[in-house]
Amino acid sequence: MKKELLYLPYVSAVLDDCLKLFDANCPEYFAPNERDDYKSFLEASPDAYELCFISGKLIAAFGVFPEETAISGGAFAARAASLNWILINPDMQGSGIGTELMSRALSRARLLGAQTLKIAASHKSAPFFKKFAAKTVCEKQDGWGPDMHRIDMVIEL
Ligand SMILES: CC(C)(COP(=O)(O)OP(=O)(O)OC[C@H]1O[C@@H](n2cnc3c(N)ncnc32)[C@H](O)[C@@H]1OP(=O)(O)O)[C@@H](O)C(=O)NCCC(=O)NCCS
User: 64, 90, 104, 116: which has the fewest Cβ within 10 Å?
Assistant: First the structure.
């Protein structure tokens, strides 16, 4: 039976647990030098960063943030959004949680009014995002660090 996922907004009390998720995915999916970037991101207490729990244990996190904005009828709307720092405990990968997070991420981006969702992926994760119609817009050899290539992708919403 599939266990229920509980989503909560990021709170600083889980910073270390998020870093543990990162460490469990490093160096397979992240270059070691990315850890400081992730820590700085978490230290800024990102409001839109979401935590995902199963039975009280943090198993995944991700966030969708507005990027470019436009004024329409006096109100701000996001033209584009970015999917940032999506990561799942390796023990839980391959069981459909990534698909559920993508569905949530796409809904959030649409709610923001975004027309595109940008993803700064790696050559390791890009095949996953391709399954959600993400298209590559730029590739940079060793863009994240040695042997971790950067693949910038977009999903048209
Ligand atoms: C990438 C990631 C989010 C995918 O989550 P997941 O829970 O394993 O994905 P799912 O189980 O929902 O898989 C959905 C489909 O994508 C495929 N898939 C998942 N990860 C893949 C990968 N890295 N490469 C190729 N295919 C992949 C699955 O085989 C499955 O295919 P199917 O529909 O044909 O059966 C997860 O592996 C992860 O957290 N990786 C480490 C962090 C990372 O790289 N994040 C991206 C940074 S931008």
Answer: 90
The CATH number covering residue 29 comes to 3.40.630.30
pLDDT at 86: 98
140 or 77: which leads in pLDDT: 140
Per residue in 50-71, pLDDT (tens digit) is 999 999 999 999 999 998 777 7
Which residue's CA is minimally distant from atom 5 of ligand 1? 98
Predicted pLDDT at 125? 98
* Alpha-carbon torsion, ordered 52, 143, 137, 23, to 10 deg: -10
Has residue 1 been placed in a domain? no
Test site for ligand 1: of 128, 132, 148, 149, most ligand atoms within 8 A of the Cβ? 128
**Ligand 1 binding pocket, CB closer than 6 Å:** 25, 29, 86-88, 93-99, 119, 121, 124-125, 127-128, 131
For residue 144, give both structure tokens: 């994240």
Cα 71 to ligand 1 centroid, rounded to whole Å = 35
Whole-number Å distance between alpha carbons of 54 and 7: 9
Q: Stretch 43-50: mean pLDDT, rounded?
A: 92
Domain carrying residue 106: 6-156
* Identity of the amino acid at 77: A
Residue type, 17: D
